[in-house]
Design a protein that fits this description.
Blueprint lengths: L7 E6 L5 E7 L4 E4 L8 H12 L3 E5 L11 H12 L15 H16 L4 E6 L5 H5 L5 E7 L9 H5 L5 H12 L4 E6 L8 H9 L3 E6 L13 H15 L2
Parallel strand pairs: 3-4, 3-5, 5-6, 6-7, 7-8
Antiparallel strand pairs: 1-2, 2-4
Amino acid sequence: MASLDSWTLGEHRNAGGDTRPTYRKGTGPGVVVIHELPGMTPDVVAFGDEVVAAGFTVAMPVLFGKPGQAMSPLPLVRSLAQVCTNAEFTKLATGRTAPVTDWLRSLARELHTELGGPGVGALGMCFTGGYALAMMVDDAVVAPVLAQPAAPFAVGRRRAADLGLSPADQDAVVARARAGCPVLGIRYVEDKAVGTRFETLHRLLGEKFLAVDLPGKGHATLTEHRHQEAVDRVLAFFGERLRG
């Protein structure tokens, strides 16, 4: 776990008593970076380091997988088994917000209370991509970023278009966007895992959905298939939204 040696291991406990590990590093406005499948890989940590270097305090929660373990088939299979048997994560259901986002919202509120400013950023990737959108329901999150959102799994047209939100949460996201909070989304245009969610976001949020459409068939825009334009747009978005 050499990539995490410079990070501080802690934990966050929400009002319901749910406690999960977190890694934290940096100074400046707060950003919650949520790892992708199979977990907090070295590539995810490297991206977190880029956000820190840009002048932000980054909190990376551990939701599944082994922190620091590299991307490979076996950890991916183990993480998939973990999320598929855990009711905290939404895999195929439509019109439902993943219960784990309640804990993530609590983490964001705590970070905002500690650090102040206009709010915090929230970034999800792949399986957790939509979690940043669910966190936007809370006013503490003012810079939500969806990197290749891939849940619920894009099996069939309905799931491919679904944002992983309950009707009430979707209404709250639309209201916040109309009130002035933009949403940044990043994908490779030929990435089938994202489904038609960007089309749904354009329809619901209009000009408040800021889409970064990268050419090609890659998937992990900020990590394994890192694209510099994607990283630059994310850091600029955080700067604009979190530094006022």
